[in-house]
Design brief:
The protein is built from 28 helices and 18 strands. It is an alpha+beta fold and 750 residues long. Helix 9 packs antiparallel against helix 16, helix 21 packs across helix 23 and helix 23 runs parallel beside helix 24. The structure holds adenosine-5'-triphosphate (ATP) and magnesium ion. Adenosine-5'-triphosphate binds next to helix 18.
Length: 750
């Protein structure tokens, strides 16, 4: 026991001030919370923390904030020993030590009055040490950081459907309760005017009593004030509730959309995706509008209905029966009407897709003068929408038409029946009572009819929710993005019998791909169009993950690696790179936390972008317009390269990054690539073989298979396809020139 006890003590002492203790403390605290998060299956990266918090000794509060940003729920609290020692079956907890370091509580034993601690800087396999109250009190500040998995984490997994929405709404218990109370009070208050009218007619008018009239008027004024206030309150609560729901839904659906794999977006039209996801707002409107109102009206019903029965049971039954009849009519029409509405939604979505595609592809559309045919397409789609709307409207007109005589009966017919009953003396209801009944009867019919109409809309809403769900309930990458290993990536690649077929494609895009390259290799990939070069790089980035065979990065199976970690460790430059609206500096740092202007300048220099950025009017603060219209293609590529190298990735993938460039820009970029390649693995896909001659290895692809892999001069001798490609490209020039071309520009790029 003694032997165990000395260990944390010693550790705590060695970490006390002196030497790099503060840096140690910082790392130790961050490592402690990372270990605690790992218990919940969430892998965090200490490097992210470096970027975001600059304190030397991270305070519990900043640790909690950071954890919160990483999607966890964390709490910093001050604990007494007697609570700590009872945490025997809780997840690991980080204890803050006085010297700025931290310990990880991994167990407790209340009967022996001991807790078990692990040094966060040690390895996971270390045996925890037992510490008693006295020992701990010497080093522990009393602060602990507890970590739990975020609720939204599981929410990002839950399918988006009606139960999900219901849970969303039900979470606002407090608002719902307040709204219910306000509604009941409102209903009660609203009974009184009817009662008062009854009194006025029965007593004041019949008995000519002025004093009663005065007191009744006073009551009416007071009630009016109350009613105004309460309905104001109710509207306010409904407003708050619906905005809160709104923001909740917006957050969840956007997070969900971003966690869908890239492959999904590639298969779908963007307009279609946007249209479907937006359908959720229809659902939102329904919930906070119609559903809420009807729900509230139900309270009115509950309060008023008994009162109607007190006034006159016969009339109350008649009102109910009439309202029920309306309900029946609506229910009968629910099916056909919602089918019609489904047609409207489909037609509208089709039209929206045309609109979106036209705007997104306007350049092509204009240059090919396709406006007329597009207009025809739009006209046809519009006609479809109009027809569907007309049909749906006509059909929906029927239940309203059929219901209107019944509604008239409720509001006017009932009074006639009442008067008849009054005259024949079969009812004790006075003239005042009759008027009161009329005033309240309308309030009962409306919610009942509303309820039936709700049913009608409900089917429409279910369809809309289904649309949204068809996008948002696709399998997400969330698990792969948050789980898995985070090994240090050096860049050794190994493909073993990798086969891959695109979904819905008939032939294999990659067929038995086998090759190995050590870390630090500059690997060129060539091959005819469609031979699988881009597919190969996509597998590397974890875009497509359902391949067979083994793809290893530094000996670790790619599928075991945390996807976020993997993508963060890569730098990728494609043929057409998207720059976001913002300054050049924003685009190079891509708003990644912790990157400064110095980093941006360093990256720009490496990418050969420095000289043109400095010639720009506002330098690094130059604003890039939407669609990067104010910079040239070559400049954009160099910015994209800077954006990729800024994080110092160990593996860079360039897929025809230079093929859209003019020879001069291309030579400049290629020259810079050689500098960039130092200390990292580069995978360069290019159609221009001349830019690959300096690669350590060149992989020749042909119909998804590896034809050969070797340096340029070897391939030239032994690989027929390579030789053919090479000769095609150099037929009209002197090979030496092609080779020497970039040399003078290299100097310019530096
Ligand atoms: P290029 O030089 O023209 O860029 P590539 O060598 O990069 O060609 P890949 O894009 O890897 O070729 O395509 C390999 C094969 O996979 C092709 O036959 C192509 O038709 C098919 N393919 C590529 N992308 C998809 C996709 N998203 N869905 C279905 N098939 C695809
Ligand atoms: Mg390609």
């Amino acid at each position: 026991m003694d032997g165990l006890n000395t260990a944390p003590h010693a550790a705590a002492h060695t970490a006390q001030p002196g030497g790099g203790a503060q840096v140690d403390g910082r790392r130790s605290r961050v490592r402690a919370v990372i270990s605690a998060a790992r218990y919940h299956g969430v892998e965090l990266d200490a490097k992210d923390f470096r970027g975001e918090i600059t304190e030397v000794t991270p305070s519990p509060a900043s640790l909690v904030r950071w954890l919160g940003e990483q999607g966890l729920v964390a709490r910093a609290i001050r604990l007494k020993w007697r609570y700590l020692v009872r945490m025997h079956d809780s997840p690991p907890v980080a204890l803050m030590f006085k010297d700025g370091t931290a310990g990880l509580l991994v167990g407790a034993d209340p009967t022996r009055n001991l807790v078990w601690l692990r040094d966060p800087m040690g390895s996971d396999g270390d045996v925890p040490v037992a510490v008693d109250e006295l020992r701990l009190s010497q080093v522990w500040t009393g602060d602990v950081v507890m970590v739990a998995r975020s609720r939204t984490q599981s929410e990002t997994e839950a399918p988006i459907n009606l139960p999900w929405l219901t849970r969303m709404v039900m979470r606002e218990k407090k608002s719902l309760r307040d709204i219910a109370i306000a509604s009941v009070v409102l209903s009660l208050v609203s009974i009184f005017p009817a009662l008062i009218v009854m009194q006025v007619i029965n007593n004041v008018v019949n008995h000519h009593s002025m004093s009663t009239l005065v007191s009744i008027s006073m009551i009416i004024v007071v009630l009016a004030v109350y009613e105004t206030l309460i309905s104001f309150g109710r509207r306010e609560i409904v407003l708050v509730l619906s905005t809160r729901l709104d923001s909740r839904i917006a957050l969840v659906i956007f997070a969900r959309l971003l966690s869908l794999p890239l492959e999904y977006f590639e298969r779908q039209q963007a307009g279609n995706v946007i249209g479907r996801v937006s359908a959720i707002y229809k659902v939102r409107d329904f919930i906070t509008g119609k559903l809420m109102t009807t729900f509230l009206d139900m309270f009115t019903l509950l309060v008023i209905l008994p009162f109607l029965f007190v006034l006159s049971a016969t009339l109350a039954w008649m009102t109910l029966a009439a309202a029920g009849l309306i309900g029946l009519i609506v229910v009968i029409f629910v099916g056909p009407v919602s089918r019609m509405i489904g047609r409207v939604i489909t037609a509208e979505m089709k039209r929206a897709a045309i609109l979106y595609e036209s705007v997104a592809g306007i350049r092509t559309l204009k240059t090919l003068a396709l406006e007329p045919s597009r207009r025809v397409e739009w006209d046809v789609a519009t006609a479809d929408v109009v027809r569907a709307k007309l049909d749906a409207g006509r059909l929906a007109n029927w239940p309203s038409t059929l219901a209107s005589p019944i509604e008239m009966f409720i509001s006017r017919g009932v009074i006639l029946v009442g008067a008849y009953l009054l005259l024949t003396g079969s009812s004790s209801l006075g003239a005042g009572g009759l008027v009161a009944f009329m005033m309240l009867g309308g309030r009962v019919a409306a919610p009942l009819v509303g309820l039936a109409k709700l049913l009608e809309e409900f089917t429409e809403i279910r369809a809309a929710l289904g649309e949204a769900g068809s996008v948002l309930n696709q399998p997400t990458e969330t698990r792969a993005l948050t789980n898995g290993m985070r090994p240090k990536i050096l860049g050794a690649l190994s493909f073993q019998d990798v086969m891959f077929t695109y979904p819905a494609a008939s032939s294999k895009a990659l067929d038995d791909v086998c090759f190995d390259v050590p870390a630090g290799t500059m690997l060129g990939i060539v091959g005819r169009s469609g031979s699988g070069k881009s597919t190969l790089t996509r597998l590397l980035q974890g875009v497509s993950r359902n391949y067979t065979g083994f793809l290893k990065l530094d000996g670790v199976d790619l599928r075991e690696i945390n996807l976020t970690h993997l993508r963060k460790s890569f730098g990728v430059v494609l043929q057409d790179n998207f720059l976001f609206r913002g300054t050049i500096r924003d685009n190079i740092t891509a708003n990644r936390p912790g990157l400064t202007l110095e980093d941006a300048v360093r990256a720009a220099r490496l990418a050969g972008a420095e000289e043109f950025i400095e010639r720009m009017p506002a330098g690094y603060e130059t604003w890039i317009e939407e669609g990067s219209t104010n910079i040239s293609g070559g400049q954009r590529q160099r910015l994209a390269i800077a954006r990729a190298v800024i994080t110092d990735p160990k593996l860079m993938i360039l897929d025809e990054a230079t093929s859209a460039l003019d020879p001069e820009s291309e030579a400049l970029v290629n020259a810079n690539l050689k500098r960039i390649s130092k200390g990292r693995t580069m995978v360069i896909v290019s159609h221009r073989l001349s830019s690959l001659v300096d690669c350590d290895q060149i992989l020749v692809m042909e119909r998804g298979r590896v034809e050969d892999i070797a340096p340029h001069h070897v391939l030239l001798e032994r690989c027929a396809i390579y030789r053919q490609l090479w000769l095609q490209q150099t037929r009209h020039m002197n090979p030496q020139n092609a080779h020497a071309g970039p040399a003078p520009l290299l100097a310019e790029g530096d």
